[in-house]
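Quick look at the format.
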Amino acid sequence: MKAIIVGAGRMAEAVLHDFVRFNLFEAITLADADGARAEDLARRRGGGVARAVALDAADGRAVARAVAGHGVVVSAVPYRYNLGLARAAVAAGAHFTDMGGNNDVVAAELALDGEARQAGVTLVPDMGLAPGLATVLAAALVARLDETAEVHIRVGGLPREPKPPLDYALVFSPYGLINEYAEPCLVLREGRVEIVEPLTGVEELDWPPFGRLEAFHTSGGASTLPRTWAGRVRELDYKTIRYPGHCARVKPFFDLGLASQDEITIGHARVRPRDVFAERLASALPEGDDDIVLVRCWAKGTKGGKPTTLTYELVDYADAATGLTAMMRTTGWPVAVAAQLLAEDKTARPGALPPELAFAPEAFLAALGKRGLDLKDQGA
């Protein structure tokens, strides 16, 4: 089977590395608007089976031509392109997965369920770190309990050495970061879906050997879980982990409207504040080459009639041997595992499915373990 990866950035590099390492596909196409960047990545990571093409992901006709003949389509571009790529995959009779990033886009992708079923293919959006890996962890915990009262997910990508002004380094697209900090957050309260504001609910975490950290509500990490488990789980929330004080430093920028997507006039130019904000973040913040990813997911409920708390925990570091950051590993590899399971038809059914319903958690987590992600099961 052939696969195409749309995008040639950091996360695409991790996906391609995994495809080649595990010999998952007979041929791989690497497509990016910057053809030279795609060619460079194919040369460095392609293992002789990857070819590069120039592709504008916003050009529907060009995308249709590019995905034709491939069995699996992976989106590693910003979330605004995902719906168009998913539609092109269905039309081409190909499975599809992406890294998510926006609840509205994911909802539109899942609305393709009937078309995907008719085409006999499976679409699984939101297969990055969180949502994605963290979603499957949560599903695994709920599956192990007889009844589930609470699910809590805490995830963060951090520089090993925090530096001012934000004690943060860019480990993925600045637009993705802004979206997480600006958009509404879905939670479960008393079994009902509710919306809370981002950059609220700051709590303190103790995480040896990193010491005191903080976590707060951000958008997208819980994704479809609140709606999937409404009425079944009483409490569910997702929070992002950062070094202490980060939330207080960034919140004023959002309160001032710098995440707005409404155009304004500055001089003779029309600009979107969010574009300016993203450019300044990209220019001012260091890239997270030496990073850490922290994941803690726990569920409370009953098993065998007894109160039980189950926990998964992951600490991952940048790997100098492969040149992959922790964020690349923990975001790209879940996508690669999803692509493998899609190619092997190891999904619940054809159609458009969220991660918590698409795959058997045990098989998914076992595949991640083979890739060296050291998940600690602290459950009973």
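Next, a different chain entirely:
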Amino acid sequence: MSPISVLRLLPLPVTRAVALAAALAAGGCALPLVTESELATESGKAFEEMRASTPTSRDASLRRYITCVTDAIVAQLPEPYVSQDWTVEVFDEPDTINAFAMAGARVGIYTGLLKVAQDQDQLATVIGHEMAHVTKQHSLQRINRELTTQAGVVGVNAVLGGGAATGQVLSMGAQMGLSLPFSRGNETEADVEGLQYMAAAGFNPRASITLWQNMAKSNKLGPPQFLSTHPSDENRIQDLIRQLPPALKLYNEAQAAGRKPNCQR
């Protein structure tokens, strides 16, 4: 699995899955799905819990550097996201190569990421990608898809009269057949959208190739693409190469307009 995270899913309440199953069994159409506002609220709680349980960096210059890159990308986001007050946290975990963005305008960067994102342009690639997950509402789509899928699993398991083992098999099948391909599509879309954000902010999109080459070197033991929610590093790099011409156009326009970030570590 690629070290860059998909927006983290919140635990699924069993009661909500059961309610969905009942609605499906009754032939109802209005399913109690999660709203963006609900997701933002729950994301805020999860974010604060992480802050309380995970060491955060006290390196002021490092925090300024990461905030500088983040602010430049936020300025290129569509509404309502560009107008939101984004909170950036730097988690002091040097062995964790990870980053995330959450609904409700929250970004988390682990210090281990800087081993592979070695300059402002490479870091912008990661932050742009993670913010694209938020602007494209991938987490909200994923959660509601999971809710619907798990409701179906509950309902089918009841019809089959199976026990826990049957339910586990059905859940695994739903994950392999629905959730993983859906997430790979999200990852590719976030790559493309994130590349546009970072290029429009004035970061060099060519750095995205170097970043994923660095990722590939640090991820030698990752699972095959078939079992991963992320595209393989090789496929990701090829996709990014194909997206470079329009991204370079945005980059050149940004440079001409005076958008030339100078975020220093």
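Helices lie at 14-25, 36-53, 60-74, 120-135, 138-160, 164-200, 207-218, 233-256.

See the schema section for token definitions.
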